[in-house]
Amino acid sequence: MCLFVYIIFYQLKIPDPRENSYHWRKGLKLFSVSRQLLWKQAQSFPLFPALGEMESHMFECVNQAAVHEELEDETRRLCDVRPFLPVLKLITRNCGRAERLLDSKIGVLIGKGLHELDAINDQEVKDFRGKTLRQSEEKMQKVQMMSCTEWLQASFSQQLEPGPGPDQINGVSDRSTDLKVTIHFDQSQVVHILFPPTVNYMIHLLLSYSFVAVFCMQYIRTCVQTKEPPHLTLVHSSIIQEMFDKEVSAIGAWSAASRYLSLCASARRAVPRAELLCKPAVSSESSGRSEHTWRDSTLEFEISVCDLPRMTRLCIAIYAVMDKVKKQNGKKSPRLYPIAWVNTMVFDYKGQLKTGDIILHCWSSFPDELEEMLNPIGTVQTNPYTENATALHISFPEYLPHAIVFPPFDKVTSIGHCPGESARPSPPHTISWSSLKEIMERDPLSQLCENEKDLIWTLRYDCRENFPQSLPKLLLSVKWSKHEDMAQLQVLLQIWPKLSPRDALELLDFNYPDQYVREYAVGCLRDMSDEELSQYLLQLVQVLRYEPYYDCALTHFLLERAQRNRKIGHFLFWHLRSELHMPAVSVQFSLILEAYCRGSIPHIEVLKKQVEALSKLKSVNELIKFGTMKNARSKAKEAMLTKEAMMTCLRQSGYYETLSDIHSPLNPNILLAEVNVERCRYMDSKMKPLWIVYNNKLLDGDTLGIIFKYGDDLRQDMLTLQILRLMDLLWKEANLDLRIVPYGCLATGDRAGLIEVVSSADTIANIQLTSSNVAAAAAFNKDALLNWLKERNSGDALDHAIEEFTLSCAGYCVATYVLGIGDRHSDNIMVRSTGQLFHIDFGHILGNFKSKFGIKRERVPFILTHDFIHVIQQGKTGYTEKFASFRQYCEEAYLILRRNGNLFITLFALMLTAGLPELTSVKDIQYLKDSLALGKTDDEALKQFRQKFDEALRESWTTKVNWMAHNVAKDNRS
Questions:
Q1: If I label 414, which of 490, 505, 583, 954 is the partner at 20 to 30 A Cα–Cα?
Q2: CA torsion, points 450, 455, 461, 466, in degrees to nearest 10?
Q3: pLDDT digits (tens, 9 = 90+) for 381-413
Q4: Judging by DSSP bridges, how do beta strands 752-756 and 745-749 pair with one another?
Q5: pLDDT per residue over 267-309, tens digit each?
Q6: Where's the PIK helical domain (predicted)?
Q7: Measured between alpha carbons, how far apart are the two ends of the chain, in Å?
Q8: Residue 914 above 70 pLDDT?
Q9: 8-state DSSP, 352
């Protein structure tokens, strides 16, 4: 007998963030309470014994996606579940509670139920999930064997600063060797502070472990440079042990030939830099309105099956032939209109050549989207939206009686060993060293002609001996359509010296799809420290798009390092989750997220609380955007009512508890303790970003701020800030600290994300407007900025603030020039009270400057106004030694970036498929090559930069005019 019990809450009202009333109990946790009430009332019914134990049942509902959702986690609030109707169904648990609870939590984290992955009828998906599940179980067993110290290092790793020691830091060498540290005690520790056994306190253990390591902590060094005492909290080791025991115990509870390739397809031309293995095959035209069948149903490509590389992909384009148009030479040619494209691998994930009929659901094409018909850089996954997608039926030939499988690695290398070939470099007198050296020193964007490719391949052993970093150029010189050359490369790759991790990043680009090349690159990345890996994690996640199969070396490497270091795991989680809405990577990223969660069970609760908090912030943002307050009589009244509604919402227990005591998604080492509702607000811009303020439990009166933005894509800002952080790192490695402020920015979902609030800072526009009664004149007051700093600093502190301003201004002048950052109005440049200048809002990069009526609004290569110079020279007229030092900082910083120009090009190239609005093709990256003058000598490049510097100074009046117009338009003073 099956017993179903339905519970209907007639008085329940599901929360709607667009409503301006809050009388319903949004934070109600109904599941466990309702189950107890049900059992109590059911005792009076005759079939009550048939119900069995209460713990063997759970509730189920139909959610907003019209999917049955099992409510295993009884701590969730009903407003977070958001059932479609106020109806819950009682069902019997079919398996272990712990397993179902884990599946439920993982489903909440990745934004989709695991039943969706279970329903995918793809053997590759099933095999990948099975393999990662076994690896996750092994990982959890290893975690249980960790010592408390090992667990502490993995879960709470410190962010370290590169560069020199304390005696070489600007402004530190002339100070006393004593460092004033403020130690905070918890109230529970007061009893023990008279005679504390110091061995039991973790701060003592950390300090005695390595003094240099403590000074290298980013927080400690920042405090030293800003002359602020570090604030540390003494934590008894028993508390750490308790945290460790809690996680480990939680883990234990949860661990219960000569033939030609032929097929039916339509294709045309190839994209530059993609290795074209043979001439494209083009079908005949097909007329009709819906279903199309091509007469010449078999397309034959001029390449033997035996010469197909393992990673061969078939790229197909469907296009319409429009009316012919007359060209300049008088001839008429058809106008081609792209309709759709799709890619598929020729070999499946097991290395077997595909055979038989398959259906490919295509991706739509647009005339301005692609310069070419084909899109080989695109995904090999078919369009999941099958109802509205073009369906292309193709048939691969059958190769009977046996399937064709790509040869194993040992077979490939046996073919690659040539008995008569010497692995030694050629004698020096037979080599055109100057030509080879010139080729190897080119940037990654430079094209190689056929003669140069032949030279590189002929001298491949010389390249290995003398130019090991030239491996990418060697790979571009291989004839991949000849299996003999391909085999010889694999042999050479086994003896190729290991590249530095930074050089190896280029090998993960689309131009190098070979499986063994990518495995070699991942092997080089294993030498990365956790800090270095975090620096490049954004790109490493993006190049997962280039991986044709779910089970690959890069995926396993990222999972391994993420599960070893929780901070890496934190950002891997958010980088993946923020793009789950993209159909091309939805399944792939969901599988990786599931694998990470199963291998990092203790991290699930931390991430779950962050996901819930962001969901609440989104609801508040929607309340502000679509609330009923727009009917107010005036804008002031509307703003007041909207803020009141926002604060009322934040005060509710469901919101307040969810938003409090969470680890910041921007930096998991920071705890956002309790929301300071009175200081929270929304910003008066189109997307109404939320300004959320948190109290710091340790520091009385001190606060932390984050900005939640919904409606804008923050990934371009995130990329720009990552590059600024890298520039800061490279400068520090060269003993040049330019006091950059690469504030935190993290995309968390579709057009949603968080931005760190930089404390004690204001915009140039506000500083200027505050000092002037007339908005139009404010931009021309060169004393405003210097006076603002004087009001907040005096004596030595003022000198230090001006030095901070000088260094940071130099850094941002160079950075904004190299990256081509546009839209630099006075609200996009800020200054801290300590003197640090920094830029915000990077919606225009790589030379995409704003224009109006076809005229560029920004005519200078970077922002360097006379009021900046006025601060640098401390109000003195004429160009002084301080200005000369400033110019020297700029030139030195520029040359340091030039020496690392290839790295910047590589990082931007790896982001080409991310879908950023101003990074869509190699042409966009060409701006970097030009700004860094990579094809020139250092002297020529420095001459070019000096010309740009003089131009920025000479034309700074145009910047002032732009700032005046902006100040007048945006003046919100009452």
A1: 505
A2: -110
A3: 999 988 888 888 888 888 767 788 999 888 888
A4: antiparallel
A5: 333 333 456 656 665 655 555 555 566 655 677 888 888 888 9
A6: 422-599
A7: 73
A8: yes
A9: B
| pTM for the full predicted model | 0.85
pLDDT by residue (tens digit) across 300-311?
888 888 888 999
DSSP label of 353: B
pLDDT digits (tens, 9 = 90+) for 195-221: 444 444 444 333 333 333 455 566 666
Determine the residue type at 918. Answer: E
The more confident residue out of 869 and 700 is: 869
Domain boundaries, the chain: 150-254, 260-396, 759-970
Is 692 strand, coil or helix?
strand
254 close to 102: Cβ distance less than 8 angstroms: yes
Q: Answer yes or no: are the C-beta atoms of 533 and 330 closer than 8 Å.
A: no
- At residue 339, the pLDDT reads 85
- Looking at residue 22, the DSSP 8-state letter turns out to be -
Contact indicator for 897, 932 with CB cutoff of 8 Å: yes
Residue 687 CA to residue 576 CA, distance in Å, equals 24
pLDDT tops 60 at residue 704: yes
CA atoms within 13 A on the CB side of 513: 23
Q: What is the residue-wise DSSP string for 796-839?
A: HHHHHHHHHHHHHHHHHHHHHHHHT-----TTSEEEETTS-EEE
Residues 833, 826: Cα–Cα separation, whole Å: 17
List the one residue out of 493, 506, 499 whose CA is nearest residue 442.
506
Distance, CA of 286 to CA of 240 (rounded, Å): 71
pLDDT for residue 270: 31
3-state secondary structure 231-293: EEECCEHHHHHHHHHHHHHHHHHHCCCCCEEEECCCCCCCCCCCCCCCCCCCCCCCCCCCCCC
Cα gap 864→843, rounded to integer Å: 20
Distance CA 53, CA 39 (A): 9
Digit-coded pLDDT (tens) for 461-471: 989 999 999 99
Question: Which amino acid appears at position 596 of this protein?
Answer: Y
Residue 422 pLDDT grade (very low, low, confident, very high; cuts 50, 70, 90): low
Task: Classify 759-970 by CATH class.
Answer: mainly alpha
Q: Return the SS3 of 393.
A: strand
pLDDT at 179 over 80: no
CATH 2.60.40.150 fits 260-396, yes or no: yes
3-state class (DSSP) for residue 20? coil
Decide: 620 and 689 in contact? Cβ < 8 Å. Answer: no
Please state whether beta strands 851-852 and 391-396 pair in parallel, antiparallel, or not at all (unpaired): unpaired
What does the DSSP 8-state code read for residue 585? T
CATH of the domain spanning 150-254, picked from 2.40.360.10, 3.10.20.90, 3.90.550.10, 3.40.50.10310: 3.10.20.90
DSSP code at position 398 = P
The C-alpha angle with vertex 972 and arms to 967 and 974, in degrees rounded to 5, equals: 130
| Tokens standing for residue 879 | 């160009």
Mean pLDDT for 72-82 is 74
- How far is the C-alpha of 692 from the C-alpha of 678, rounded, in Å? 10
Q: How far apart are CA 251 and CA 818, in angstroms?
A: 48
Binned at pLDDT 50, 70 and 90, residue 627 comes out as low
Q: Would you say 699 and 231 are in contact if contact means Cβ atoms under 8 Å apart?
A: yes
Residue pLDDT, tens place only, 509-550: 999 999 999 999 999 999 999 999 999 999 999 999 999 999
Sequence-distant (6+) residues with CB within 8 A of 944 are 933, 936
Q: What is the pLDDT of residue 292?
A: 60
Query: How far apart are the C-alpha atoms of 57 and 915, rounded to whole Å?
Result: 46
Q: What gap in Å lies between CA 690 and CA 911, rounded to an integer?
A: 29
Assess contact for 508 and 910: CB atoms under 8 A.
Answer: yes
Q: Please spell the DSSP secondary structure of 406-475, one letter per residue.
A: PPPHHHHHHHH--TT---SPPPGGGS-HHHHHHHHTS-TT----HHHHHHHHHTHHHHHHH-GGGHHHHH
Report the distance separating Cα 227 and Cα 202, nearest Å. 25
